[in-house]
Amino acid sequence: MSTEARGKVRVEGGKYRLNGKFHYAFPNDPIRNEEGELMGVTNPRDVTHIHMYGGEAPFFENLSKGKLLGTKCENPDCDAHGSVFVPFRIHCPDCLWKNTIVDMTETANKGASVHTFMITERTGAFNTLEKPIRFVNVEFEGVSTILMGYLPVGEPEMGMKVVPIFQTKSPTFTIIDLAWVPQGTLESELPEGFSFG
Ligand SMILES: [Zn+2]
User: Fold this and answer.
1) What is the torsional sign of CA 108, 109, 115, 116?
2) Cα of 164 from ligand 1 centre, angstroms
3) CA-to-CA distance for 156 and 152, rounded, in angstroms?
4) What's the CA-to-centroid distance between 140 and ligand 1, angstroms?
5) What does the DSSP assignment read for 90-114?
6) What digits encode the pLDDT tens for the residues 61-119?
7) Which secondary structure element, helix H or strand E, spans residue 60, and what is its range?
8) Residue 128 — very low, low, confident or very high, per pLDDT cuts 50/70/90?
9) What digits encode the pLDDT tens for the residues 34-48?
10) Which pTM was predicted?
């Protein structure tokens, strides 16, 4: 299926405007047992899922510009006043105020550290990352949360210093535009399309 033929969405005046086809059905196949009896059918489908980012849109837009955004609770009456959240939380979980967006790129560039990690060869459907995937849980000085990411260069270790890299050449506008590499990694060692923030 060419991507040209696929449905596209734009927003005008706060309303979705859909153009093109969003559902394709393909010829099915019977499912039979050893005796040849009909048990069912397969239903091949191709569906374009519309995933709206809402208040998280600035986070994904900025990854494509080499920036890592977080958020901060600035409600003076909140017990968690001043808490910084990465991953990006639209609202403070303590007081439910709308958080303020803060640029965490510089903090991350100084060296975030690997809290823990997991290496996996078995992935879910539609995985696009190279296997094995080295998932890292990244923590920052002064940040209340731990961010999940992946390490495409090097081998992870607990406490290891890492810096963010960004898919700025052909961004997907998804979380895979953000990855982590060991501090000291050279620009020439980065995966295709990635650069430092
Ligand atoms: Zn709060």
Assistant:
1) positive
2) 27
3) 10
4) 19
5) SB-TTT-PBPEEEE-HHHHHTTEEE
6) 999 999 999 999 999 999 999 999 999 999 999 999 999 999 999 999 998 999 999 99
7) helix 57-63
8) confident
9) 999 999 999 999 999
10) 0.89
Compute, in angstroms, the gap from residue 182 CA to the centroid of ligand 1: 33
Domain ranges within the chain, ordered by starting residue: 54-196
pLDDT of 49 strictly over 70 = yes
Q: For residue 191, which of 128, 138, 137 has the smallest C-alpha distance?
A: 128
Rounded to the nearest angstrom, the distance between the alpha carbon of 101 and the centre of ligand 1 is 13
In the prediction, which pLDDT does 3 show? 59
Residue 101: name the closest of 150, 137, 147, 61 by CA.
61
The per-residue b/e assignment along 12-32, b for 16 or more CB within 10 angstroms, e otherwise, is eeeeeeeeeeeeeeeeeeeee
Name the phi and psi angles at 144, rounded to 5.
-80, -15
Q: Contact 72/85 with Cβ under 8 angstroms?
A: yes
Ion ligand 1 contact residues with beta carbon within 5 A: 73, 75, 78, 80, 92, 94-95
